[in-house]
Write a structure and sequence with these properties.
The chain is of the alpha+beta class. Helices cover 35% and strands 26% of the residues. It has a single domain (2-191), classed as TBP-like, CATH 3.30.2030. It is built from four helices and eight strands. Strands 1, 2, 3, 4, 5, 6, 7 and 8 form an eight-stranded antiparallel beta sheet that branches. β4 (127-131) and β5 form a beta hairpin. This is Lipoprotein.
Length: 194
C-alpha cells in the first residue's frame, strides 16, 4: 500500500495546487485533462488494490468480481448544478466500484469481513468517516488525502447473493471540457485520444 499511498498524495497535491491557483474559470483544459487521467488511474488502482487486499486477508473465501458492461469505473458530479448533453459539470469525482459475491456464504452476510479488510488502511493513516456497521445496511467509510473507500456489506439470507462492494471516490476536481465523452466501458478510448 505504501507505493499507492505516495501516488495518492502526489495526485492530490497536483489537483489541489492547480485548483487553488487557477483563475475564476479554473485551470486550462490541458491541465484538467491531465489531472482527470491521473486521478482516474489512482482511483482505479485503489479499487483494484482494495479487492486484492480483501483476497489476501481472507484467502479461504472467493471474492468473485461482478462486472456490468458500461458501469464500474465511472464519474459523478460534485455539485447539484445542472449539466448534460455535451456540457459537463463544473467539477466531478471518479468513483470506481468493485462489486463482489463472497463465496462460500457460510456464515451468510459480509459485514463481519469489513473491519479486518479496512484495518490495514486505518493503520496506514486512513480515518473513519462513517461507521454504520451495526445498521440494516452495513457501511464503513474511510478517508485519506481526498480519497474515500466505502465498504458496503449486503447482509442477506442464504437464498440471496452474499455481496461485499468496494466503492472508491476520488477528490473533486475541475471537469475537462470533453468529460461527457467518457465511456466507462472503454476508458482507453477517452484517455488515449490525440
Amino acid at each position: 500500500m505504501s507505493g499507492l499511498a505516495r501516488r495518492v498524495g502526489a495526485v492530490l497535491a497536483v489537483v489541489v495546487s492547480v485548483g487553488l491557483s487557477g483563475c475564476a474559470s479554473g485551470p486550462s483544459q490541458e491541465v484538467r485533462a491531465t489531472d482527470a487521467r491521473a486521478t482516474y488511474e489512482v482511483a482505479v488502482e485503489l479499487a483494484d488494490e482494495v479487492l486484492a487486499h480483501a483476497r489476501e486477508v481472507f484467502p479461504e473465501l472467493t471474492f468473485e468480481l461482478n462486472t456490468y458492461p458500461g458501469w464500474g469505473d465511472d464519474w459523478s458530479a460534485c455539485s447539484d448544478e445542472p449539466y448534460g448533453g455535451e456540457t459537463p459539470p463544473r467539477s466531478f469525482t471518479w468513483h470506481p466500484t468493485r462489486n463482489t459475491e463472497v463465496l462460500p456464504a457460510d456464515p451468510p452476510g459480509t459485514a463481519h469481513l469489513i473491519m479486518p479488510i479496512a484495518q490495514a488502511y486505518l493503520d496506514d493513516g486512513w480515518v473513519i468517516g462513517r461507521d454504520n456497521l451495526d445498521q440494516d445496511h452495513p457501511v464503513l467509510t474511510i478517508r485519506k488525502d481526498g480519497f474515500v473507500i466505502r465498504f458496503i456489506a449486503r447482509d442477506v439470507g442464504v437464498e440471496m447473493y452474499n455481496r461485499l462492494d468496494f466503492f472508491i471516490s476520488g477528490p473533486c476536481q475541475y471537469s475537462p471540457d470533453d468529460l461527457m465523452d467518457f465511456d466507462p466501458a472503454d476508458p482507453d478510448a477517452y484517455f488515449d485520444r490525440a
